[in-house]
Amino acid sequence: MTFDRIDLKILDILQRDATVPVARIADQVGLSQTPCWKRIQKHEEAGVIRARVALLDPDALGLSMTVFVLVEAVEHTPDWRAGFLAVIERLEAVRDVYRLAGTYDFLLRVVVADMPAFDRFYEKLTAGVRLRSVNSIFALECLRAETALPLSACGAGIEARS
Amino acid sequence: MTFDRIDLKILDILQRDATVPVARIADQVGLSQTPCWKRIQKHEEAGVIRARVALLDPDALGLSMTVFVLVEAVEHTPDWRAGFLAVIERLEAVRDVYRLAGTYDFLLRVVVADMPAFDRFYEKLTAGVRLRSVNSIFALECLRAETALPLSACGAGIEARS
DNA sequence: GCTGAAAATACTAATAC
DNA sequence: GTATTAGTATTTTCAGC
């Protein structure tokens, strides 16, 4: 699938503000409404646009604590991994899960209300799986959190997988 | 500001899928359209709903590399921090910035196309500020990435700042 | 606070160019 | 790709309870 400058501009507008009407997007990219709408439709069907969501303020909802948890596996087997993921799955505080290269095997971004809530999470995590090590890094402040991708890094025309 | 069960349910629906029409949200929370719409409006004005955005597929756009960069400051002064943030600001690959408690001072989530692109980022970062240490943790795979907050952890009625 | 209905806007689809 | 059209759905406002 290829994206030209117009596609990238449309996607960039939508990933910043999905409430912009198609007519204005068309204006900004120098297209008329119909082809602009068709492009958006195409990207939605292709899954390039995965979803349209509302972003909420964590502080306003009392979820102002973010902790990054670095986990080391006790053994590097498919079984251990399956068990680990099964436990993670049920823990709602876990927002992001990344498998890592290097010393640590997994990175979790955990969002909770306060320290007692984090302790409850920690209990459940360590009760569910055996871990070689757990390193919790507490965030004092979130200075930036962008859901938008850096599309300017894509350049003019890019090509991607299938 | 307080949120009752209905508020939390409305917000939960919207943070998962912002395309759901107000009429259906009203149905699901047991309200008629107008009061449901008014609640959404109120949350938007209060900033509880920060934005409505489209989420894009990083792989489809050739941005499949995520690196977490842990940074240690050379000195813990306001000046150093201001300089660091000024450099970070101009680096588009940096998506999230967290100030940390503990050994490391900052965590960056960096999204780039490939290793050369990360190298260019690294060059710019280290050229712009003096750092005591930089620890780059490469993600092999993203198993989960939720923009939604774990509202179920809020319980029935919650109270938050101002 | 709620209901119900009307008005304004935006979306979706089809047409001919 | 453009321009125009029309039908549908949604949002938003306005009365009244």
Description:
The structure is a homodimer of 162-residue chains. In chain A, 38% of the residues lie in helices and 31% in strands. Chain A has 162 residues and is α+β, with helices and mostly antiparallel strands. Chain A has a 4-stranded antiparallel beta sheet. In chain A, strands 1-7 form a two-stranded antiparallel ribbon. In chain A, α2 packs across α3 (33-46). Chains A and B meet through α1, β2, β4, β5 and β6 of A and α1, β2, β3, β4 and β5 of B. The structure holds a DNA duplex (17 and 17 nucleotides). Chains A, B: This is Lrp/AsnC family transcriptional regulator. Chains A, B: It holds the Pfam family HTH_AsnC-type. Chains A, B: Keywords: DNA-binding, Transcription, Transcription regulation.
Summarize the structure.
The structure is a homodimer of 162-residue chains. The first copy, chain A, is an alpha+beta fold and 162 residues long.
